[in-house]
UniProtKB/TrEMBL annotation, chain A:
Annotated metabolic or biological route of this protein: Glycolipid biosynthesis; glycosylphosphatidylinositol-anchor biosynthesis
Keywords, sorted A to Z: Endoplasmic reticulum, GPI-anchor biosynthesis, Membrane, Transmembrane, Transmembrane helix
Membrane topology classification: Multi-pass membrane protein
Presence of keyword Nucleotide-binding: no
Protein name in the entry: Phosphatidylinositol-glycan biosynthesis class F protein-like isoform X1
UniProtKB/TrEMBL annotation, chain B:
Keyword line: Endoplasmic reticulum, Glycoprotein, GPI-anchor biosynthesis, Membrane, Transferase, Transmembrane, Transmembrane helix
Tagged with keyword Plastid: no
Pfam families: Phosphodiest (PF01663)
Membrane topology: Multi-pass membrane protein
Source organism per UniProt: Priapulus caudatus (Priapulid worm)
Ranges that cross the membrane: 467-487, 507-526, 532-554, 566-589, 696-713, 725-748, 768-789, 829-855, 861-883, 895-912, 951-969, 1015-1036, 1056-1075
Record protein name field: GPI ethanolamine phosphate transferase 3-like
Family assignment from sequence similarity: Belongs to the PIGG/PIGN/PIGO family. PIGO subfamily.
The keyword Transmembrane helix belongs to this UniProt entry's keyword annotation: yes
Localization terms from the record: Endoplasmic reticulum membrane
Pathway the protein contributes to: Glycolipid biosynthesis; glycosylphosphatidylinositol-anchor biosynthesis
Amino acid sequence: MSAATENTATVFFAGISTSATVLLLYNGFIESLCTRTLWLLKVLVLFISTWQLLSTLVSIHFWQFFGRANDISNTRPKVDKDNKREFQVSSLYKLLMVYAVGTVLIYTVTVLFGAPLLNKQEETILFSLLLASCAILPGCCIFTTNWNRWLSVLTKSSLDQSVLEKSSGRVSVCTLIGAWLGAFPIPLDWDRPWQVWPISCVIGALVGYAMGNGVTTIQLCWQMLRARRKNSRMKLP
Amino acid sequence: MNLYRLTFLCLISLFCMHTASLYVFIRGFLLSRSELGNVSQCIVEKETLSTDHRKNLVTYLTPSFKSAKCLDPAANYSCCPSSSFTSVVLLIIDGLRYDFAVPSHDSSQANLPSYANKFPVLGELLVSHPRSAQLYKFIADPPTTTMQRLKGMTTGSLPTFVEVGANFASSEIKEDNIIDQIVMSGLKVTFMGDDTWTGLFPNRFHRQYSFPSFNVKDLHTVDNGIIDHLVPEIKLPDWDVLIAHFLGVDHCGHRYGPRHPSMAEKLNQMDRVVRSVVAELPNDTLLLVMGDHGMTKTGDHGGDSADEVDSALFVFSHKPFMDAKRNQSTRRAVSQIDIVPTLSLLLGLPVPFSNLGTIIPELFSGGGSTPSDLKGELSVVEALLLNSVQVARYLDEYTKTNKDFPYIKYKQLKKQLNSSMETWASLRHNISAVNISASINEVKDQLINYLDSVKSMSQQVWAKFDVVAICGGICLSVLTIMAGMVITRNIHCIDMIDKSGTTATKWFTFSTLMSSSMLFIFFCILPDLSAISVAVAMLITVTVYLMSQAPFICKANLCRPSTSMPLLESAPLFVVVVYSLAVFSNSYVVHEDSTSSFLCQSLIWVLFIVSCQHQAPPLKPKREQHKTRPVQFDLYNIITDYRFVLFCMAIGLNCVLRFSQEFWRCREEQWDCELSRFTQPLSAISAMTVYKNTRYFTSLLAVCLLPYLLRLWMRHFGNLNGHAISVIAVKYALPLMSVSVSLYWAFTSLSQSIIDKLPSWQHMMFPFLVYGLAVCCIGVIVISPLFIYQPEKMLYAEKDKKLIPQVYYQMNLQWQQHMGQAPTERHAVTVYGLATVYSSVVITVLVIAAVVLLLLLGDGFAWGVFLLLTSMFLFLEMYSCVATSQVSGIDKVEVPWWAVVMWQMIAFSGFYTTGHQASFPTINWDAAYTGFHGDYVNNIVPGILLLLNTYASYVLFALATPLLIIWPFSQGRSLAKLGFPTAYKTNQRDEELQKQGEFVLQNYDQQFRLALNRLCIMVVTAHGLKVLAAMASAGLHRRHLMVWKIFAPKFMFEGVGFVVMSATLMFSYTLVLRVHGALGRWVNKLQQ
């Protein structure tokens, strides 16, 4: 039952994320990003981080928030002991710590990849915050300091992942690849305002984010539809 | 023929084929325009004239104005105008940029650069002689190198790219040119200055004072030599044309840049020269002061930016020659080749045959006092007419032999000329008409328009490409790379089998080799058959390839190596594809420094993530966790974790790549690039003493650290024991080399005036010491390549005073006595340094090369080279870390593709770390003079120095390439000392191999040799792919606006870099084989 609720929550939030991001990118967003970069980035970071935090926490702890804790032991896929899910305030503290470390790491790697170190610091920091919010915040909520799970999600090595874990891993990989691909048009001589650092990377990251969420939505919808059809077919006779 | 020999043959043939493809492509791509041997003459036989022109000549050039010579229909039209001047003084100031010469009227002196208003004589003459002085902006045709410019300024032809490389090996001009015309008409030419002229025009000059031009550091020899002879020569009666070519300004630009105070000094000197010439100038002599090209903000030239192209032309005579109406404040721009017809017609000579320039009209107006003077206007039109007819004749002649010009355009131009001739003819009949002046102006405009369109057409058409040869070169290169891929895929080093059968590889190799040699021969001997030969060769190759591959294709699924890491195979492939495609976009070529670095870093992270997927257990067992209280966070476990170590190395490698950005040089297309301080030589930094000292001493640290670290490393692994000659070389010669390098840096940081006073042996001492020692060291290492030490057999009890061996000895003795055996004198053989026997040699040669390269690169790049070596080391560590954890035992000998790709990518990004860009103005010419004070007998030595400087990174990485095989086995790895990671599946055999270190390779002789061949083939193929991409992009973009500025230089840099890399790789390959052989002999001797 709980796995189903988790699936539903994941699909729900992923769908909303996808459509919101697509709408955002569609609707004159890029022009305003070019003109009011810092302001818009701040808003984006704030919005996305809150949204990711809320949606992930809600999808993890859905059962806890809405009761029905008893169902869990039977239906939940088996995960190792470290991965127990109870909402605690201390885990929130841990989460924020990991998030901060992740942001610093992303900032470092961004600068190492060639982002300017001395000028445009604010842009770079905001960009890494955005990337951290999109890519690692769900992971922070799910795994906190369980480094082995982190690595296994990033490298897709273990198979026993829940739907939420899979989806968050996919979103982070897609976001990172999107941001990476976003750097490609920077050297081109097209003289477009969005070629300036970090706008193209932000757009790339958002597109990647939307795509990752979109794939999750479609896949889960498909699965659920199939499951329902199966159920109804089984019930019929 | 065994597999080893076969692969060696493959390696050689691949190298030859790559070179052949480069050659074939170059033959097609860098074709020049064909030079016509025709010479303009005063008497032109009627047959050589087309009927149109003869009619034109008879109809239109018969007298309508009062030029006596043209009255005679038998006279040739080329010589019609009487000469306006009897003699000419031509002062060429090399590198005279337009703003050096033009007087600046900016009131605020503070804002002016130091070179402004340092040439005031021109401005003064313009004011005092408004009718006999004129200043023009003088636009050069790129490439703006001196020899190309001289060729253009004497023949009037447009330059083609191919001759650029021959800048310092000037060859005689064979085309009709103004010097020949002057000499033929019996006038006498005196020349003084740059010896490029005497190379271009041997035996033409009546008297010559030439001075060597090659040494850029020498600001004064040429100029002072000219100044000594110039004024006395002017006073002599026996010259008609006097040419003086000053080099000081250009050399000053190369040395210090235009903003340096010595540039102001130099310009002042030129000012004084012009003043003295003006004072002595005879009355009917024309003085021309001009530059051959400009210079960029850094003082370089060769490209086509406005700063490089804009030069100045100043015309002066004591006799007025212009209309008074000319407005002095507006300065017209004239093309550099315009000087050819102008000078010819002013001297009354035929215009050189292949000239495409237009006369400068105002110089022909004869100096009439009133603007409405028809005589002046008429002579202008007459001169223009002569000029146009000459150009038309050239076009006719050229079209007879070549099909370069589009036919429609050619016809259209012809019609245009005819119509203006007709206008002229109609004008001739009513010369007294009222609006004669307007009509004359109309004809004039039409003619100028005609000449301009001819010029622009030829500029478009001129670079004539042989498309067949271009395609042939590209196809050959593709074939070669395919061959390389097939060969590396089919060779399996471990099982010693060739998976699809030796025959396939053999056949393929031979067929490609055969067809390539066929191509080569056809191109060399029978250029006309090129198309057929390409087709035939391709056909043969492809057929044989398909035939040979038939069994392979059938078994393709069986042969495909099962990759355990698909991402690690696909990511480098993706990067290679992206990197190759990037060459096709001019922006990515311009920003290739960032691109290569970015892709490199991405690959490093991919490598990290992929190797994290395969969790290898740490060697040291995890601490026992208390079962009651589980430890959540254990620093020890994290630090010793294999993934953490990899992470640190990835971050380190990233940092190294990021820091190396500080050493990038700017190319002119990178408009937002800030000039790196490290690219400036120390002597150019005059103001900041503190910075100068800091930089010098930090660089000193780097150059001292290199031999010190080597020594530390070698001593640790026991390679520095004993008194072998190679050990002594490393111990003493290498530190001496770095001391010499640092002393030489100190020497070069002296100011120019002090250096010039020092005798030349002081210039040469330190560099020669370094060269000599390097050659000696490498020679010694080649002669005795084993850094191992076998101490004499001795009795521990007596000789060795060390504690542990004594204890061991005593225990052994007692044990034997206890067992009832007689004590034996038999000892195990003790040898030092066997576990790093290969890598010690390679690394030593690497460090020697690095020190020599530091000498050539200058002190600014000391840390750049250090970073390069660090990145090499980190990558090797990372690679061997992954390799040892994935693959066990001797299988590590087979280097995977991803490692080669990453290795090459780091090498490519290293090209920029050593302060280079793929554009001609950024070539560091100074390197050619390190230790050689100017005058060279030939170009080989400076060429080699220049290549070493430019391709420092390729040389270092090619030298270190065998380490890719050696390092995973080496005990010299820093991680091996720490004890991890172990092999994936640890077993007894692996541990034994691990203990033996590099000596394992000796035991697996065949595998090692095969792997070495395979690695070399892979490296050559990977580099060849980059050359192929550059080649294809240059070929594809051959009509692109930027081709000569971006794509062609890119291709040429890559092509030459490939040859340098391959040569170095061959050296490294032989060196490692030499070590291998010597070690084998040593083992045999020991066994006996």
